[in-house]
Amino acid sequence: xxxxxxxxxxxxxxxxxxxxxxxxxxxxxxxxxxxxxxxxxxxxxxxxxxxxxxxxxxxxxxxxxxxxxxxxxxxxxxxxxxxxxxxxxxxxxxxxxxxxxxxxxxxxxxxxxxxxxxxxxxxxxxxxxxxxxxxxxxxxxxxxxxxxxxxxxxxxxxxxxxxxxxxxxxxxxxxxxxxxxxxxxxxxxxxxxxxxxxxxxxxxxxxxxxxxxxxxxxxxxxxxxxxxxxxxxxxxxxxxxxxxxxxxxxxxxxxxxxxxxxxxxxxxxxxx
Length: 272
Hints:
Layout: E1 5-22, E2 25-37, E3 45-48, E4 51-54, E5 59-62, E6 67-71, E7 78-82, E8 89-92, H1 93-98, H2 120-123, E9 125-134, E10 147-154, E11 161-167, H3 169-173, H4 176-179, E12 184-203, H5 209-237, H6 241-248, H7 253-271
Parallel strand pairs: 6-10, 9-12
Antiparallel strand pairs: 1-2, 1-12, 3-8, 4-5, 6-7, 9-10, 11-12
């Protein structure tokens, strides 16, 4: 267990070895090996506690005071719902697998480069769980209560394995001189499993009347600027600019017809 991650082991490989020092070189002699699977790791519950704090906005919250959801593989529908409570969120590994796209079971074939047709249960995998906070959705004015959602994604082509080495007590207790002259034993344990990594993101805010006025003023300035540029283009740059000038400066329909007739007569004179 880490501060932002947890590993649930699914498969173990243990190998007993003898350490032999030979003229400065370390030789390992394998004695025996054992392999075994963990029993129903999918049923393991992961307790998740998280919080958020913004020094700039002064927004603070924990999952104990917020409501949240674990979303399905499409990120749309909730698989589990969490309401304000005084305990950690309990989510099973099976639920995390259900929430991950393109990942239905630990017995699916692993896409690891060295998977050799073995399953995720045998090779392990990496799940990224994103906790997204929000207090701005679903409201037209101001902010709402803080909420959060869990979304899950399996990182492709990524197996997961941890190696532990346990030396025999007599090896650790003796002096270095004796260690280098006497064979000793050790246990090499390889643990394969699902590594669940958590990250926190979100969109949070607070209402500011001054910021609202600022945004409205800037929007009005932009509208005025766009209107002015459009008028200049229409009045002086387009082929029909004279017609637009007559329309904008309030000439009647008869004046427009006369103006159009004058332009036609002018063109005929130029042709003659």
